[in-house]
């Protein structure tokens, strides 16, 4: 026993060291956004393409209310209920005190300015593919919005999921930066891929997940159970969605389906965002969805 205990202690120390290394927050280089000039007008397009207001504004917000990013919406899941934070320019309760690099680290690395891991309810696994210029422009636009002094609420997450450091292990397993669709792309479908896979983070809802919450990318966009337990999120691959590209683009613009129905539920907010993009971007998204591998 006297010979075994030191070996066990050494193994434990090595294991702890490996865990600490694997789970350490991974930040961008300090000069990652140096030299990039902001374009506020383009930042507004990035804002709508990224769906920021769909989570961070009030659930029933319309018009200018969608620009009041006080947070507070609740998102239930198998791991607890996540509550969207205040991302308005308020310096105390929002992100008014953040630098552009802080926002880039949050969006592409899932790391807070204090160095803590964010929960992947914040879709940084998709935003990881966002162009840093777009994030620079987005930050400039966010800074023009009204500051809202509402404090962010704490997530309703219990043990062991409330151990933030362990999220580094989740990222190690599932934060797989890289494109899902890599072959047969045209300039239009490449733009559509960027809008769907990165900014629009469509896969975060429309792709099934494994038991630990990682996206099953082999079943990309093939639908998933609704995290709140009510119904399912539809399959939007050509294996189920048989609309033409023109029909899809028209739906994104107006909310009307080819069957003379109209958009509802959470998708209504998404369509409202997409309606503010250019016709070319909506067509690019539709073209991309038509080349995604069909899943029945």
Automatic annotation (TrEMBL):
Superkingdom in the source lineage: Bacteria
Annotated GO MF terms: electron transfer activity; heme binding; metal ion binding; oxidoreductase activity
Domain Cytochrome c: 38-146, 187-293
PROSITE patterns named in the record: CYTC
EC number: 1.17.2.1
Keyword vocabulary terms for this entry: Heme, Iron, Metal-binding, Oxidoreductase
InterPro entries to which the protein is assigned, alphabetical: Cyt_c-like_dom, Cyt_c-like_dom_sf, Cytochrome_c-type_DH
PANTHER family: ALCOHOL DEHYDROGENASE CYTOCHROME C SUBUNIT, BLL4482 PROTEIN-RELATED
Protein's name according to its UniProt entry: Nicotinate dehydrogenase subunit B
Protein's organism: Actibacterium lipolyticum
